[in-house]
Amino acid sequence: MRIVIAEDDPLLREGLALLLRAESLDVVATTGTPDEFLAAVDEHRPDTAIVDVRMPPTHSDEGITAAVEARRRHPDLAVLVLSAYVEQAFATELLSHGGARLGYLLKERVGRVQEFLDALHRVAGGGTAIDPEVVAQLLARTRPDSRLERLSPRERDVLALMAEGLGNTAIADRLVVTEGAVHKHIRNIFAKLDLAPTDRSDRRVTAVLRYLDDTRRRR
């Protein structure tokens, strides 16, 4: 896996590079500004980018903007976004684009090395990785509408793990149930949220968006 890192904190930037290289991953460039990041992506054509949300000059959304531009130039680029705290608009924006090859983690997750590496590999493999704390905070602020109230507690557990980007096998392991039980819960979630099969949408992502969109609307 070829990786470019965009992080303006030099200690975290170099710490990430050392961690990843120790795992035999190929860190081809480390950058501290959005312009340097985009130049590195164009030059090295990495498989994956790790990008801080807030970067110079204003430390607002430059990282997200640069990540979106990098994906526009290189649609197959996997992007794992790091943030110091939960920023709802950015998490929702990531999922609203389908979630493929995208991740959103809190920086504190980097210290939990195996969880961080699992998320990185999941995103690089074409999946989604949303920090459990992001999901928990967003769902905690949600006042359920009539459709969400249809879900059982177990179905809510399954949906929360879906939002983290876990597949059926991983969900089954986390909840200590069979894959068949997970598959049944997911079918029930789709039915209760009125998500019919269609070629034009990803029902897993749409189910999570129902939570996040409702949260944003009610803030």
Automatic annotation (TrEMBL):
The modification 4-aspartylphosphate is found at residue 52. One of its GO terms (molecular function) is DNA binding. One of its GO terms (biological process) is regulation of DNA-templated transcription. PROSITE patterns: HTH_LUXR_2 (PS50043), RESPONSE_REGULATORY (PS50110). Keywords: DNA-binding, Phosphoprotein, Transcription, Transcription regulation. Transmembrane segments: none annotated. SUPFAM superfamilies: C-terminal effector domain of the bipartite response regulators (SSF46894), CheY-like (SSF52172). Residues 2-122 form the Response regulatory domain. InterPro entries: CheY-like_superfamily, NreC/VraR/RcsB-like_REC, Sig_transdc_resp-reg_C-effctor, Sig_transdc_resp-reg_receiver, Tscrpt_reg_LuxR_C, WalR-like. The keyword DNA-binding applies. Residues 144-211 form the HTH luxR-type domain. Pfam families: GerE (PF00196), Response_reg (PF00072). This is DNA-binding response regulator.
